[in-house]
Every structure is written in C-alpha cells, then in structure tokens.
Specification:
single chain; 18 strands; 5-stranded antiparallel beta sheet; mainly beta
Length: 284
C-alpha cells in the first residue's frame, strides 16, 4: 500500500524505459493483483537492481499520476513549514516545496492573498476529494490543544513560529499543538516561519502551553556550561568575558543571557575547571 505524502521504503519490482516500478512488499508478487508505482529514470542510480529497497516519497506528478521520488520535500503531509509562493493561477497559488511539481495552495485555504515572492506558513494534507496533496494556511484545522497529555514541562520539542502578536510569537509544537513564546524569553532575532528547538516551560489547566527557546532547569545550566567550554576550547583556553561583562557583550559571544552565563560559570568553578577575572575566563 502506498502512503501519499510520506516517506516509505519500497522495493524495485521491474525496470522499463520510463524507470523502475516499485512495490510495497516483495511478497506482493505472489498475489494475483498488486499495485506498482513508478520511480522515474532521473532518480535511478547504478547500484539499483530488482529487489533493491529504496526510501521514496509518494505524490502526484504534473500529469496527476502517483509517482515516487528519492527527493525529500521541504514539507510532508501533516507537517507545518514556511514556503515561498513561486506562481499563481485563477484558483490559488503554487508553493516551492522542493519537488518538480509545485504544491498548490487554493484560495479557499488562504487567510490572506499572497503574491509571488511572499512566504506562507502552511500545513500539507491530502485533499479528500482529489486525493492530491495541497497546502492550507488555516492551521486550526490540524493543530489542537484539546489534549496535550503528550507534553511535559522541560520537554525538548520542535517548533515553527507561525504568528506574531503583542506578547511574542505563537508557535506550532511538533506539528500538533499551539504554544506561545513570549518576547522576554527571546534573546536573538527570530522571524515568522523560523523552525527551531524549544522547551516546554508551562502547561496550564486550560491546556495553554508556554515555550522557552532556552532549556529549563538543570538542563539549561548544563547546556550553558557546555557552551562556555566549547568557546574556551575554540579560544585556546581563553574567553574574554567575565562577571563585569555587559549582557550585550555576553550574548554577542555566547548567545546566552547574563543570568545563564553566570550559572554556567558557577558550575565550571565548582568543578575546578576554570578561573575567572572581571573580563576573562581561563581553562585550568
């Protein structure tokens, strides 16, 4: 069985002038009828032969045929990402998702009318009527906080910054839940569409989820000390920062807040790994 919009392992069944026809399982050949999908010639390599297993992505090509590709798209079904508008039509716009056939974003799935060159945060899904993969900017259809029992405080998660408001950025957590990154938790330049690691800092009784861009608790201190050690190694055992350094100077060199910088230093001092002056740290 072929899964539209996802990566899966298929097996080469036979070769034709058009490419290799693939099957889901080698045992399929024992059936009277079984499905095949074409992997076009452009994706074939010299080491491929009958029965070779290949990781492929399944989608509809420009002639509306189900085909396989060894290219990995920017976004798969069920995922959230920011994509660029590269063409338009009377019915919507087309997005670049890294495959020969562009991803369609119909007017009915838009929250505003993007132009060529604009970037849109979208979710990819399989349309029930056509069976094709399309995009939507209406993320609430696929993102829910009704049940966030799979999240715990201090969890490391993948986030996409989806919307900006007066408090910070609303983000999508692991392609499933809404979260909020507050401005006072942001210590670097970020933009809508950015994909990054985040850390769950709070989950309310109403299932609202707060996300920090820095690790929380012990993990945060450990990562801060590790960052400082890496910078010391890079600087031949010397880092020109210390207790008297400004928060701006510390952040420019370490991407740490002064508070977390000092906690990281504290760990290393207790371990006897460094000595520190007002504007200088040295490895021992």
């Amino acid at each position: 069985m072929f899964i539209i919009g996802q990566l899966q392992k298929l097996y080469i069944n036979r070769f034709t002038p058009q490419g290799a026809y693939m099957i889901s399982n080698l045992e399929d050949r024992e059936l009277e009828e079984f499905e095949e999908v074409l992997l076009p010639n452009r994706y074939l390599t010299e080491d491929m032969e009958v029965d070779t297993a290949v990781d492929v992505f399944i989608y509809h090509d420009s002639e509306d045929r189900i085909v396989a590709t060894t290219d990995t798209p920017i976004i798969k079904v069920g995922e959230i990402a920011q994509l660029e508008v590269i063409d338009n039509s009377p019915y919507g716009v087309f997005l670049d998702w890294g495959l020969p056939k562009d991803l369609f974003l119909p007017f009915s799935n838009q929250t505003f009318r993007p132009n060529v060159g604009d970037w849109c945060v979208v979710c990819a899904y399989v349309d029930d009527m056509s069976g094709r993969i399309v995009a939507t900017m209406k993320l609430n259809k696929f993102i829910s906080n009704t049940d966030v029992s799979d999240l715990n405080v201090a969890d490391e998660v993948n986030i996409v910054l989806a919307e900006q408001n007066d408090y910070g950025f609303r983000c999508v957590i692991d392609n499933k839940h809404w979260g909020m990154v507050y401005t006072n938790q942001i210590f670097k330049e970020v933009y809508i569409g950015d994909m990054m690691k985040g850390y769950i800092s709070k989950i309310t009784e109403e299932n609202r989820v707060d996300v920090s861009l820095q690790p929380t608790g012990r993990r945060q201190v450990e990562e801060s000390s590790t960052t400082i050690l890496k910078l010391l190694d890079k600087g031949n055992g010397v880092l020109y920062l210390g207790d008297k350094s400004s928060p701006e100077k510390i952040y420019d060199q370490t991407f740490l807040s002064k508070k977390m910088f000092k906690r990281g230093i504290g760990v290393l001092l207790k371990q006897g790994r460094i000595k520190i002056e007002d504007e200088k740290i040295e490895l021992l």
